[in-house]
Structures are given as C-alpha cells and as structure tokens.
Amino acid sequence: MTARTTLLDREVAQAMSALSAAAKKGLGDPALAELVMIRASQINHCAFCLDMHLTIARKSGVSEKQLDLLEAWEEAGDVFDERERAALALTEAVTVLTDGFVPDEVYERAAARFTDAELAHLTGLVAVINGWNRVMVSRRIPPGGYAP
C-alpha cells in the first residue's frame, strides 16, 4: 500500500503536536501516555502511530509484557494497575463512542483515579491521538517514517 499523499499542512501538524505535548505534560506520566496512544492506535489500525509510539514507549520504560498484552488489557490480570486500567477503559470509550457517549461508569472510574486536571489532559491526549490516527490512516501513511 502506498501513501495517497504525504502532504500535511505545517500549521495543522504544529497545532496537533502542541496539543499532544501539552496533554502529555499535564498528564505527567510518559509511560501511561504511550499506553493510551498505543491502545487508541490499535483500535484505529494506525500502523504509523503504532510504530512511532511503540518505539517511544520502550524508551519511556513501558515493559515488553505490557506492550505484548495491551490489546487484551482487561484479561491481563495484574500486568496493568488500576490507574492504567481506568485510563485504558476511558481511551477505548472515547475512541469508539459506539453509543454516542462515554458511559458514566467508565468516566467515574477514571475520575476516581485522576485529578480533574489529569483527567482533562488524559481526555485531550485521547482526542489528539484519535485525530492523528485519522490523519495518518486516511492518507495511508505506512510505518517506518518516524525518526526519534
């Protein structure tokens, strides 16, 4: 598969990158941020973003076991702690939006484990990675173009 176009407006890319950086910084947990971005990218089938964020996750100290079991995090026992599980549940709910809303129990679970500010940054991070996924998938950008 070849890219449809590699053109992306520089101002758009800079704005999305700034939102991503602000959300990661406000969340304050680089490893968790990468787990969230990888999980959304798995759901959205974004090979470019998976390639990039798996590389960053390894550099951020995310364990290979977590990366191996991320797609099945709900069944992975104690591989993920409660905070990570709440963030992943929220990530899936915001990414899929099957019923048009994030279920109250998913939001409340996350709200119990994150401050209001952290929750705002987590939600922003999920929103921006979904945006990046859509930008990359719609243009069919293949993996391998990320240079750390």
Largest sheet: none
Number of helices: 7
CATH architecture classification: Up-down Bundle
Calculate Rg over CA atoms. 15 Å
Strand content: under 5%
Distance between the terminal alpha carbons, to the nearest Å? 24 Å
Assign the structural class, choosing from mainly alpha, mainly beta, alpha/beta, alpha+beta, or little secondary structure. Answer: mainly alpha
CATH homologous superfamily caption: AhpD-like
Mean pLDDT: 93
Tally of strands: 0
Count of distinct structural domains: 1
Which residues sit in consecutive blocks of at least 5 with pLDDT less than 50? none
Under CATH, the topology is which?
AhpD-like
Helix content: 55-70%
Q: What series of H and E elements makes up the topology?
A: HHHHHHH
The shape, in one word, is globular
Structure description:
- Residues 11-92 form the Carboxymuconolactone decarboxylase-like domain.
- With 148 residues, the chain is mostly helical.
- It has one domain: AhpD-like (Up-down Bundle).
- It is 66% helix and 0% strand.
- The protein has seven helices and no strands.
- It has helices spanning 10-27, 30-43, 47-59, 64-69, 82-96, 104-111, 116-139.
- Helix 5 (82-96) packs antiparallel against helix 6.
- It is globular.
- The model has no long low-confidence stretch (mean pLDDT 93).
Write the layout of secondary structure elements.
Blueprint: H1 10-27, H2 30-43, H3 47-59, H4 64-69, H5 82-96, H6 104-111, H7 116-139
Helix pairs in contact: 1-7, 2-3, 2-5, 2-7, 5-6, 5-7
